[in-house]
Amino acid sequence: MKRISSFIANNECVKAENKEDMLVVNNCWNDNSFRFEFHDSENLEIFENIVLPKELFAIFHKDRNLYEFIFLPLQEKYEREFCYIYCGRTFKLYYGEPTQAFEKLTNHIILNDTADINERAYGLLHYSQYYAQQSGENPEPLIPTNFFIERDFSALPYEKHIDFFRHVNFMLSYYDRKSPNILLYSGTEEHISDIMVPCKSKKESFPKTINSNNFDTTLLELMEAAKDAGSYRLKYIFYFQVLEYCSYYYIENNLKRQITNIIKSPDILNSEKYSHRIIEIYSDYFKSNKDEKRMERLLLDLCTYDDIKDELKTNSKYFIENLCFDGGFSVKGLFKDDNEIEMPPQNIIPTIRKNIDSIRNVLVHARESRENSEIKPTQKNILLLKPYLFLLRRIAETVVIKFE
Prior knowledge:
By secondary structure, the protein is α+β, with helices and mostly antiparallel strands.
């Protein structure tokens, strides 16, 4: 282990162990989806001065004051070099060939069995395959390309590095809409990697025959938009719009139905009881005419607890605990423990409505006005949002099926 002692000292999250004649290095960039394996005979001095920041997909070369951001092999040379003045310091930014340290690292990557292929793993595997093909009979005519920023970073605290990269991303997009951006992570994703996707066909067999009514076209289009949206925040907003659309028309249609039924009464001209009933109906209508009351009525009528129980049980931990998002916004847990998920409180549907509504308001308006809190667009928040996104999706699907 001595031969990478400096590397381990520079990267506290890294876990290294000897297995037979191999050195196995896990959790680089605080990411457990892949590992690197090196033979005992290999010289690893090249890694002595490199840092793998968990908030980035990059290598920081301490001895050269150089950030190397992993990009891709390209068909044409990407010629761009410029200077950026930040906090009174001038930084040099350019695209160029990957360093030897990066090449050696990618040549030893192995995907861990239980992992999904995330952005980091995909990028490293892509490079690994490229280098393997270069040593074959038919090398790809591609140009390996990474993005570099150099300058003496020691005078800047590390959080200023991240802030600077955000500025760089903004200005790159400002001048070039097709410009690649620096990938930024929260560095906390490994702590909340246990979120699972609820699925009906995991517990129930897929039906041999499906029978459905003609669903509202607008609702189907909103569901498609939610499914196709690249951002989890956008997905959440589209699924919520399904409920907004239905809650408005559901109450209106219910009012029309009740009034129409009264008007159809054969003795309507001979009895005052109908006028009293119409007044009662309109009184109830105006009481429930606020958006939250409309939606609550919709969910109470069209969405039963059994419809959404699997979503709640699959990721129960995130509905029992209070969820605290980066930015200060939080939602209270729905249940005390797993037993209460089996026997929920009577007001569980209104409580769920309140939570999904609060999250939506913060996502749309950037912050919760009363608490001055927000849900920042961090990787941690994307992951924390998932259980409620899965729950909202099932609620929206159930409402689409039952809505008339």
